[in-house]
Amino acid sequence: MNHLVQRIATALTARGAMLAAAESCTGGWAAQVLTAFAGSSNWFERGFVTYSNAAKEEMLGVRAETLARHGAVSEEAAREMALGALSRSRAGVAFAITGIAGPSGGSAAKPVGTICLAWALRGGAPRSETRHFAGDREAVRRQAVERALAGVLELLDESPRRA
N or C, fewer C-beta in 10 Å, the chain? Predict the structure, then answer.
């Protein structure tokens, strides 16, 4: 993941932009990976670990209606998490991760390994996706962090002047 972090650091620094993270099932793993990079205080603004639904509502402004209607593991919730991270920080770019890392907690509709991610630029519409990762809890979480970081880089590459 170090290569992704290096590229994110370069892209954010070139834009003078800061990044915020909103994490649920990864429990701060993405923020840890980002802040393990020397100089990250120049481009990483803050992280939110919102494991419970109440934390998502209180810290990120995720609507109770969204959680009741779609669940915490949904693209709708992930988009609201990313937008909440932007509105509650000084960052210009944010990402969100929510999902079911296992080994329990899955259902037929949302099996273990279901991860919903979202990315947003300040002033823009968020994008989101759902992925299904294989492996044990650690493997699912690692893949979620890697995908979230890759998505940040994709967003920055596609929008060089907006962030």
Answer: N
pTM of the model: 0.96
User: For residue 51, what pLDDT is reported?
Assistant: 97
- Collapsing DSSP to helix, strand or coil, 62 comes out as coil
Q: What domain range is 105 assigned to? A: 2-157
Q: What contacts 110, CB < 8 A, 6 or more positions away?
A: 71, 73, 100
**pLDDT at 162 > cutoff 90:** no
Helix axes 137-158, 2-15, angle to 10 degrees: 30
Residue keyed to tokens 């990315």: 119
Q: How many domains does the chain have?
A: 1
Residue 71 lies in a domain: yes
Radius of gyration of the chain (CA): 15
> How many of the other CB atoms lie within 10 Å of CB of 2?
9
pLDDT at residue 161, rounded to an integer: 58
pLDDT in tens, 68-126: 999 999 999 999 999 999 999 999 999 999 999 999 999 999 999 999 999 999 999 99
CATH number for the domain harbouring residue 86 = 3.90.950.20
Measured distance CA(129)–CA(98) in Å, rounded: 11
Q: Which two tokens stand for residue 17?
A: 């932009």
